């Protein structure tokens, strides 16, 4: 399904997720070297490095493009560094793709990595009373799990979702991640085990909320002409990348906001913010959700995955629970979701997440996802979301 906006994926690589206690640069370099080896491209031939930033690891994290370029060895390559919270990896990919489509470079490396603190994320240090993210922690005590629980309660109130539905998402993803060598958690669980895990933010339990993790992911992308000239055949292509922002009114609270825009005087026009993310990707690629073979979505909580089913167009509003219960989103079903195991099995390594989703889709489209392969996969879509209105979706095909 390649089009005039497509770039080729020559190689992908990941450093396994976990708690390794090392510098984030090590994870990014390891992922980059795997991606370069997978692509058959020498580091010296990379013309552009797009780094996804991490804000927790000092100045090197803020200039990730240059940090990774230095660690791999200065070659004069051009660099960029992108911070878009959890959408940072997609923003970095968008930069590399734009450079390639503009004809400024032929081949680029996209890389992101993180080292995270123990426990749930806290606000960045300092006294920043004009920062909504700082305020939501200090004024509301609204940690990330609090927001996840509010979304879950919304599903229960609007659509009749149950505790068992949320637990079933975790059961499904744990099964998918069982054979993923890069996953941090590789253990099957039952609904009863999920429901017996400690309550964190009602109605969500410990096994239904993603962890914070260390990890890294990388991609080597190039122009279609470069791929053909160097003998690459039937490559996976990135056919669309979107990084949309919300439109007014934004009627569902998004982190770190305290309230929604008013819809009393302005009616909701078009899709909600989260639904607009994948909608823009389909429009750019010229296809629809009916063409998708698999999806990698941002399951910060098991309940949030159900929202994404509707937002990426796999089913209508309020139909996600039935889609889950039918087995359609499980391996062997109509459109498996998170065949990698998702964040349920990986946890959050923020700058690497959107890139890791693309790595998984690439392996699936190549038929290389041993033990979790989606048979006959031709098109995959990702969906991710960063704070402050950073949408993120990538569509890949083969």
Structure description:
By secondary structure, the chain is of the alpha/beta class. Helix content is 36%, strand content 18%. It is built from 14 helices and eleven strands. It has a nine-stranded mixed β-sheet with strand order 3-2-4-7-1-8-11-10-9, with helices on both faces. The relative contact order is 0.20.
Radius of gyration: 20 Å
pLDDT averaged over residues: 95
Content-based structural category: alpha/beta
Uncertain spans, ≥5 residues at pLDDT below 50? none
The end-to-end distance, rounded to whole angstroms, is 7 Å
Please estimate the helix content: 25-40%
Note the total helix count.
Answer: 14
Q: What is the H/E order?
A: EHEHHEHEHHHHEEEHEHEHHHHEE
Strand percentage: 15-25%
| Number of DSSP E strands | 11
Largest sheet: 9 strands, mixed
Strand line-up across the major sheet: 3-2-4-7-1-8-11-10-9
Taken from the alpha-carbon principal axes, the silhouette is: globular
Secondary-structure map with pairings?
Blueprint: E1 7-18, H1 24-39, E2 48-52, H2 59-62, H3 64-72, E3 78-82, H4 88-101, E4 107-114, H5 132-138, H6 144-159, H7 163-177, H8 191-196, E5 199-201, E6 204-205, E7 214-222, H9 224-229, E8 236-242, H10 273-285, E9 294-297, H11 302-311, H12 320-326, H13 342-346, H14 353-366, E10 379-386, E11 390-397
Parallel strand pairs: 2-3, 2-4, 9-10
Antiparallel strand pairs: 1-7, 1-8, 4-7, 5-6, 8-11, 10-11
């Amino acid at each position: 399904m390649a089009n005039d906006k497509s770039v080729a994926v020559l190689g992908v690589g990941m450093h396994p997720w976990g708690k390794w206690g090392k510098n984030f640069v090590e994870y990014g370099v390891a992922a980059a070297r795997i991606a370069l080896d997978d692509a058959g491209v020498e580091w010296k031939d990379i013309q552009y490095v797009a780094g996804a930033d991490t804000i927790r690891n000092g100045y090197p994290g803020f200039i990730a493009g240059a940090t990774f370029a230095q660690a791999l060895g200065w070659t004069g390559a051009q660099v960029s560094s992108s911070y878009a919270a959890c959408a940072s990896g997609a923003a970095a990919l968008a930069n590399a793709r734009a450079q390639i489509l503009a004809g400024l470079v032929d081949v680029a490396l996209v890389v992101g990595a993180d080292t995270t603190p123990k426990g749930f994320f806290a606000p960045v240090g300092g006294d920043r009373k004009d920062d909504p993210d700082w305020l939501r922690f200090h004024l509301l005590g609204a940690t990330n799990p609090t927001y996840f629980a509010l979304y879950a309660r919304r599903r229960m109130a609007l659509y009749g979702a149950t505790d068992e539905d949320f637990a079933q998402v975790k059961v499904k993803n744990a099964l998918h991640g069982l054979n993923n060598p890069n996953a941090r958690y590789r253990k099957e669980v039952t609904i009863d085990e999920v429901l017996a895990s400690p309550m964190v933010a009602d109605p969500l339990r410990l096994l239904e909320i993603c962890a914070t993790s260390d990890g890294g992911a990388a991609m080597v992308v190039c122009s279609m002409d470069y791929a053909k000239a160097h003998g690459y055949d039937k490559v996976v292509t990135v056919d669309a990348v979107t990084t949309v922002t919300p439109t007014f009114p934004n009627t569902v609270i998004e982190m770190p906001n305290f309230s929604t825009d008013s819809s009393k005087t302005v009616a909701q026009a078009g899709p909600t913010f989260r639904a607009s993310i994948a909608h823009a990707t389909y429009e750019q690629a010229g296809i629809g959700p009916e063409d998708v073979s698999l999806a990698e979505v941002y399951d910060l909580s098991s309940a949030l995955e159900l929202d994404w089913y509707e937002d990426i167009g796999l089913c209508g509003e309020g139909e996600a629970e039935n889609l889950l219960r039918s087995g359609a989103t499980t391996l062997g079903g109509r459109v498996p979701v998170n065949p990698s195991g998702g964040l349920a099995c990986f946890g959050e390594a923020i700058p690497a997440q959107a890139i890791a989703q693309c790595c998984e889709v690439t392996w699936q489209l190549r038929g290389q996802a041993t033990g979790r392969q989606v048979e006959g996969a031709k098109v995959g879509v990702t969906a991710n979301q960063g704070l402050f209105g950073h949408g993120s979706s990538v569509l890949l095909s083969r």
